[in-house]
Amino acid sequence: MKILIADDSRAMRQVVAFMLREAGYRGHTIVEAADGAQALELARSQLPDLIISDWNMPNMTGIEFLVKLREDGSTTPFGFVTTEVSPEMRNLATASGASFLIGKPFTATDFQVALDACLP
Fold first, then answer.
1. Most C-beta atoms within 10 A of its C-beta, which of 33, 76, 88, 91?
2. Is the CB of residue 23 less than 8 Å from the CB of residue 6?
3. What pLDDT, in 10s, does the model give residues 38-60?
4. What value, to the nearest 5°, has the Cα angle with vertex 3 and ends 2 and 6?
């Protein structure tokens, strides 16, 4: 499985990758993007099986990335890992096609629950 992690913080991308391994998702190919625009390019060229994105990023936000991806016809499971956890943000994420939203701070169990629910 190929997983795209989009976050403007390299350290946070590494933490997310670590949490995925801790949640039992080991041995997968990880592709990293530093902003939403780069993530969209990589999603189009790399065709990941799962996308995990921050909400607030430069050049293109996570929600803008998700909307453009869905406009392309992509049905790739997409989730957010973000500090944006208000009911309005959760509703916007779901309405835009996100499979999950994990709030920071998070645990490996948060990833396990979210991914087990959206991956085959």
1. 33
2. no
3. 999 999 999 999 999 999 999 99
4. 145
Query: Strand locations in the chain, DSSP E?
Result: 2-6, 29-33, 50-53, 78-82, 100-103
Q: Using an 8 Å Cβ cutoff, are 81 and 55 in contact?
A: no
Residue position matching structure tokens 């996570």: 62
Q: Which two three-digit tokens encode residue 114?
A: 């979210």
Could you tell me the pTM of the whole model?
A: 0.95
From residue 49, how far is each of 54, 77, 83 by CA, in Å?
Answer: 17, 7, 24
What is the CATH number that goes with domain 2-118?
3.40.50.2300
Contact 63, 16 (CB under 8 A): no
CA 16 to chain centre: 9
Contacts of 66 (CB under 8 A, 6+ apart): 53, 78, 93, 96, 97, 98
Please tell me the distance from the alpha carbon of residue 79 to that of residue 94, in angstroms, as a whole number. 9
